[in-house]
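Annex B. Sample input.
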Amino acid sequence: MTRRTVSMLLTLAAVVLLAACTPVNLRETAASRAPAAAEQTIVDTGEIEGAAYRIDIPANWNGELVVNAHGYETAGSPRKVPLPFPSGMEPLLTQGFAIAASGYSGQGWAIPEAIADTERLRTHFVARHGAPKRAWLVGWSMGGLVALASAERHPRAWNGVVSMCGVAVSSETMFARGALGPLAAFDAMFPGTLPQASAGLADASLPPAADGDAIEAALAGNEARAQALAKRFDIPRGELAGSLWLYYLALRELAQRADGFPVGSVTGPEGVDGDEAALGARIRRYVADPAALAYVRKTGALTGDAKVPVVLQPNALDPIVPARFSSAYLALATAKGRGQKVRALPPVGEGHCGFPPETVGTALKAVRER
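Annex B, continued. Sample output.
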């Protein structure tokens, strides 16, 4: 893999969790309504408590609302003005659904802001445009967690939710098993590649980002180890460097947000204890800062207790949110006696949130029929 290829991969990884929406920060506090001359579509844009929003209502509105919850946005990323229409949702607008999207008032792993901003947007839609016949919430990547948490916390607001390529586990599980696990294993197998400090990955002095080219160079220097690491964590070898780079970035951002190291090492067949034998490496163990872990559990917990229908749509090959995470809400709901509320669709598409254009419509149809 060339340096140019790695750089392109890292650029993609930096924005890949956005998935279906590029949020912006509008300065105007008053909403605007601008009918499009050709289709007579109503476009309502503005800002609600620091979160830019956009609402599109087609001339052939069927009376139903779909709210889009976008994915992870790296802290400090520039935002477009005005908020663009969320990509991937065009088929629903042409089918007569009204589409609403919030840019969120925060960046990074902004779960609490995203949940609150999404509910404010729904409330604004009702106040300005009237109550829809039915309201659906579709979340992409990190937005999948936002959608599922919203279904648990605001069950009367939604008729059902769809998680597309979504984080369908709690923040603690995603970061402990999905980010810290592979990072700690990589650090043990390729020592000195990630930024170094006395407390390892938990050291507060670490820089916010790792060197993606250095990660790929280390992997390329020992392909046997690289292949073992990729296989253990269900990450395609060609995308391993970008995934590790993004995991490091998100873990450091969450640590800053939580004011302490946010998760600890996990044990057992799905945790790093089993990785030593599988990978032939001595893996450093981490203990979460109690206050930081409490923040993660308070803001990003999932119980499986959604009282509305849920549909999960994983990717067939996802380097960022593997299917064991994007389909996991079914097990949580089953443990709560609500498994009948959840349907996991067959995986489709390769690459994080890389779906054929009809996929979101198929998933929405599935939840509307439940």
